[in-house]
Design goal:
heterodimer; A: alpha/beta; Rossmann fold; 4-stranded parallel beta sheet; 10 strands; B: Rossmann fold; FAD/NAD(P)-binding domain; 5 domains; 5-stranded parallel beta sheet
Chain lengths: ~220, ~650
């Protein structure tokens, strides 16, 4: 899941300062699951904005709407009636949804209502952890199912480094050393020999710029 | 005029034996309502609290097939309860009886009264028809614990339904009493490692003599005996031939006639009566067999049935009761044991030496060693000293945080015999509901709109009662074809799930967001969301304590403070209130485990949001109180009123 956190309201108020009517756009996907951009959060933010602006003597009208996913154009189209009504949109979707919304509704300005954090797992209510950085070349087979790219502070492919002590990373005692975890896991799996294997450096050079995934066998020619 | 959708309302305008006549002309009210409203039957009643009127009401319910009642009158809480009972006996559930307080409209206000009644009627029409669900349940009961208490529970319950007893790899002391008995299966060497499902259909996982097995049961009773534990430090002496623990003494069948036996109470087992009960009973028996018996005590505890009689009988037969004060010393030789102690009433005597042949020492009682594991496997809470159940006034003795799982006996704290019998009877009654294989239950659990459910698991994780499952069904109209579902037998209707849901997919019947927000659409200066187990009752009490309490206040009752959505707090302020109170149960004393803690977290969240929006966070406050703290309610409301007066009008209110 994509994990996001709420943007400080001061920032949002600043973005929408010139406008008198805005739409708060929620997303029913990851951001609902991570309790930051679903219908509930849309309601809370809208109420907060109305009161803040009322207090500042510049009342604002705030519309509220949540759609299935903001990363698909068909769902974004559901905003069209409300979008036509407003001067700006605040999206509570992840960075993907915000960009796509901005693209679909140009020239209406679209602002981020959240800060997109990472790809992670939900450990318990209110607790998320980064698990994946979408590097494009998975090494989890070599590391006992624990990602050193996402979970080691230095993204080391061969570890641990000298900063690992008592299972914790030198960066903070709240951070587990990923390579310590990998060692423990490989030991439990009886695969400690994998620690000796040197994983070659990844090619981070993206010669083709931002990544795209096109699967010819799935694409549809619309003639 | 008739009502839509099989809703057949009977309207009763009660004039309280003519006492309401000076307040409002009920005839005019009746005529006005007849012009506009939808209902089946209307009449002016003389006093609905009288038996004659209720008999007439019963006949009218039958004759007009009424399934809803709207009662407008003086609305005394006592009469309200009486009429609710009356309605339920005639198949109209409490949620289909609406009460309208005529006095609320003010004097000679016919229109006001009519609009109050119309509001009540509207509420009834909006309310989706509440139905009963009939569920298949398993009559089989699992008793965890094969000690004396588990055996006693199993014997009682087996009179009505089949029982399986597992020892949970602990005491088998009770096995001899139940083995081979009708309706009882005994499993030894088996440990419970997990439970899935819901009351009526629990799937229990066992580690049965090393093998993983599973079996289904309708209900589970935990009855693990507490274990005696000798703490040497408390006596500064070791055990030996002449110094025994109480449990050692109870087990041996030695002949003590002609011997001098001293029981020492008060140094251990301070919190229960177990040692006192056992000592009194055995002292009497020893005395009858010709022993010389002393009981050394600091305070004699006899506060349970039969103990006082045992104490009197023991005194009458010549058992010596010797009171000591503070520390004592125990010295032992090969032939005798001496206790040196201070007698509180004879301060001039330095120390008394009491020489006996045998000294019997009371022990502490500790939870069965498997308690922590079992608590983790079943997700049950433990409390003081590691025994089951939190120390919480709202929890009935046998209740756990999960429906269908009950505590009996000393697994939730050392318990004396007669109390144990009472608990067994209570548990027997609870599991007895499943004996016929079917139960009928009011389907008042929260309802989930699948279209809005993101199956995020937030409700599942925050439910204190394990009442929620994620179900998959092609008919569920979202991309997962899945949604959360609250089980009618497991759900306790606190509404925590509804307040946690990030998609607003969950609504608790009778407390839906719409029903709650409607109450604050034009709020007064102060709105108080009040838990019905504390705040709302304290408010009721406050009315009688201070009928002249002048605060511009609206009380919005909720079943648990955990139902107070952050949105309710913000909305009250946005729509015009100057301040909001959360009236919640005392810490560690929420009937629904952690509802008040969630309420406190939401208060913090909303205070932060106000701060960020440049508004005064002090406009939101939480008050911890109990149902009997009417004075506390008055004080809190007055101090909040003073606070918002000082803060002035809420600058964030959006007046429409």
């Amino acid at each position: 899941m994509i994990v996001v956190d709420n943007k400080p309201i001061e920032d949002i108020l600043q973005m929408i300062a010139p406008y008198k009517k805005v739409l708060i756009a929620g997303c029913f996907g990851c951001v609902t699951v991570c309790l930051a951009g679903g219908e509930k959060e849309v309601g809370l933010l809208a109420s907060q904005i109305r009161m803040a602006r009322q207090k500042d003597g510049s009342p604002i009208e705030v519309l509220e709407q949540t759609v299935e996913r903001q990363c698909d154009k068909e769902y974004l189209e559901k905003f069209q009636d409300n979008a036509r009504e407003v001067e700006a949109i605040v999206s509570l979707a992840c960075g993907i949804g915000i960009q796509y919304l901005a693209e679909v509704y140009e020239p209406i300005p679209v602002f981020p209502g959240v800060n997109t954090q990472f790809l992670g797992a939900n450990r318990d209510v209110g607790k998320w952890e980064e698990f994946c950085m979408a590097c494009g070349e998975c090494v989890l087979d070599k590391t006992g199912g624990i990602c050193p790219i996402a979970r080691c502070s230095k993204h080391l492919l061969n570890g641990p480094c000298g900063g690992s002590q008592y299972g914790k990373c030198e960066v903070s005692k709240d951070v587990d050393c990923a390579w310590h975890l990998i060692y423990d896991r490989l030991k439990a799996l009886g695969q400690l020999d994998k620690m000796k294997e040197i994983i070659p450096a990844k090619n981070w050079h993206r010669d083709k710029g931002p990544r795209k995934l096109v699967k010819e066998e799935l694409t549809l020619e619309r003639n | 005029m008739s009502c839509k959708d099989n809703i057949r309302v009977g309207i009763y305008l009660c004039d309280c034996e003519g006492k309401l006549a000076p307040t409002v002309d009920l005839n005019k009210v009746k005529t006005n309502i007849q012009k506009t409203a939808n209902f089946e039957f209307i009449r002016i009643a003389n006093s609905l609290c009288s038996k004659a009127e209720q008999e007439r009401l019963a006949k009218e319910i039958d004759r007009y097939s009424l399934n809803r009642l709207l009662i407008a009158g003086c609305i005394d809480p006592k009469i309200k309860r009486q009429l609710i009972e009356f309605g339920e006996e005639r198949g109209i559930c409490r949620y289909n009886i609406e009460f309208v307080d005529i006095c609320k409209a003010g004097k000679e206000n016919v229109e006001g009264t009519v609009s109050l009644i119309n509001e009540g009627l509207l509420k009834m029409q909006d309310r989706s028809t509440i139905v009963y669900e009939e569920l298949e349940v398993l009559p089989e009961v699992l008793v965890i614990g094969c000690g004396k208490e588990g055996a006693a529970a199993a014997l009682a319950i087996s009179e009505n339904q089949p029982v399986t007893v597992v020892d949970n790899e602990s005491s088998q002391e009770g096995k001899q009493f139940i083995e081979g008995k009708k309706n009882i299966t005994v499993k030894t060497g088996a440990k419970v490692v997990g439970v899935e499902g819901f009351p009526g259909q629990f799937l229990v996982r066992f580690l049965d003599n090393g093998k993983h097995v599973k079996q289904s049961f309708g209900a589970i009773i935990i009855a693990l005996d507490a274990q005696p534990c000798f703490n040497r430090d408390k006596y500064q002496v070791g055990l030996g031939e002449r110094i025994l623990t109480l449990s050692q003494f109870l087990k041996n069948d030695k002949d003590y006639s002609g011997q001098k036996v001293t029981f020492l109470l008060g140094k251990a087992d301070e919190d229960s009566l177990l040692s006192y009960a056992a000592v009194l009973k055995n002292a009497l028996m020893l005395k009858e067999k010709g022993a010389d018996v002393n009981i050394l005590y600091e305070d004699m505890k006899v506060s349970a049935d039969q103990l006082e009689q045992d104490y009197e009988a023991a005194r009458a037969r010549g058992v010596n009761f010797l009171k000591y004060n503070g520390d004592l010393q125990i010295l032992t030789t090969a032939v005798a044991v001496t206790v040196r102690y201070w007698e509180p009433f004879l301060p001039q005597i330095k120390q008394i030496r009491l020489v006996s042949d045998y000294l019997v020492l009371a022990e502490d009682y500790v939870p069965d060693s498997g308690t922590a594991d079992l608590a983790a496997a079943l997700d049950l809470r433990t409390g003081p000293d590691g025994f089951f159940q939190k120390d919480n006034v709202h929890f009935l003795p046998i209740m756990s945080n999960r429906e269908g799982i009950y505590f009996v006996g000393s697994c939730h704290g050392p318990i004396y015999g007669i109390e144990l019998q009472k608990e067994i009877e209570a548990a027997k009654a609870e599991v007895g509901r499943f004996a016929s294989g079917k139960v009928r239950v009011l389907a008042l659990q929260p309802q989930v709109t699948a279209e809005k459910c993101a199956v995020c698991l937030t409700c599942y994780r925050t439910c204190p009662h394990h009442a929620i499952e994620i179900v998959h069904d092609e008919s569920l109209n979202n991309m997962y074809h899945s949604a959360a579902r609250m089980h009618p037998l497991a759900c306790r209707r606190c509404g925590i799930c509804a307040a946690e849901c990030p998609g607003k997919a969950i609504q608790l019947p009778l407390y839906s967001d719409q029903e709650i927000l409607q109450q604050i659409s034009r709020p007064p200066k102060l709105v108080a969301y009040a838990c019905e187990n504390s705040g709302a009752l304290a408010a009721e009490m406050a009315k009688s304590l201070d009928p002249n309490l002048q605060v511009d206040l609206q009380i919005v009752p909720v079943p648990c403070s955990g139902k107070i959505d952050a949105l309710y707090l913000l909305k009250a302020l946005e729509q015009g209130a100057d301040g909001v109170l959360l009236l919640v149960c005392h810490k560690e004393n929420c009937k629904f485990v952690w509802g008040n803690e969630r309420a406190d977290q939401r208060k913090e969240q909303v205070r932060r949001r106000l701060r960020e929006a440049g508004l005064e966070e002090d406009r939101v406050e939480i008050v911890y109180l109990a149902a009997n703290q009417g004075n506390q309610f008055i004080a809190s409301v007055q101090s909040m009123a003073a606070r918002i007066n000082q803060l002035g009008s809420n600058p964030g209110k959006v007046i429409r």
